Amino acid sequence: MLTSPADYSSHKDRIQSLLNEPGVREKVIEELQSLGIPTIPCLKFEIKGLQGHTFTLEEEDLRRVFSVYGEIEHIEVFESEAYIQFLDICSAYFAQKTLHSRNIENLQANLEVTWQLSNRVPGSLSVWGKQNNLVNDCSSKYTCRFDIQIDNEKEFQVARRLIGPKGINMKRIVEICSKGMNCQAHDIIKLRLRGKGSGFKEGPNQEESFEQLHMCVSSKYFGKYQLACEEIEKLIQQVYREYQQFLWTKGIPAALLQVKKIENVGSCGLKERSVNLPEPAFNEKPKGLKERKLV
């Protein structure tokens, strides 16, 4: 029913390019905060017929159209309206900006794409509005992303170092966070490596995103979310030190690296935090762990 995704696919490279430009993400976050827009990356979608007609929505159509803007975590469809939850707030921002009020001439209708203004969403997404005794902050959905400051080059393989052989690093963090919980691990914490070099392919064309390599963390349990973030931060710092050592062995000055975290804690708002690693002198061997062998 929706316009062919080919009409939208030309936006993908441009959107990904925008996201990678310096300062764009910060400007998006600043604008959303100034407008009081909720920081959960969820949009409400409807097709409004100019003659008062209603249209039944199909998840497959919605996924093809909205995946152009970034990775989708979940879609919930209720006949004539749908809720699309992205992993990244900036994906939701660009989708809303470019699709809202778009005219579909052959349907004699307009697209209506609006921000979901409460944390109560029908169906399975309603977990955002549920109370949980392990959540002690302002929302039951906590997400963040750690932007990785190193390109995934063949010689250093930063993505593989982060995940670990056969995913051992991710499994270890999930295991730590799952202790004391009587439920499935994937219901407690989710860790995802996404972006350029991650190997994860998305969208109708099954392509790797052009976004900067990043690690996503999400949980509805605040304590477990904090624990996972601490472990991910330590892991990134370790890999950064290994990278500095890698550069040192090649006689290349080590650039100043940051552990950059962009946090979305529901109605509390988006927060950005960066921690610099000390910059070693050119002739000084970086301190830290020895180079690990990849198997």
From TrEMBL:
Residues 43-118 form the RRM domain. Transmembrane segments: none annotated. It holds the Pfam family KH-I_KHDC4-BBP. One of its GO terms (cellular component) is nucleus. Coiled coil: none annotated. Keywords: RNA-binding. The keyword RNA-binding applies. One of its GO terms (molecular function) is RNA binding. It comes from the Eukaryota. This is RRM domain-containing protein.
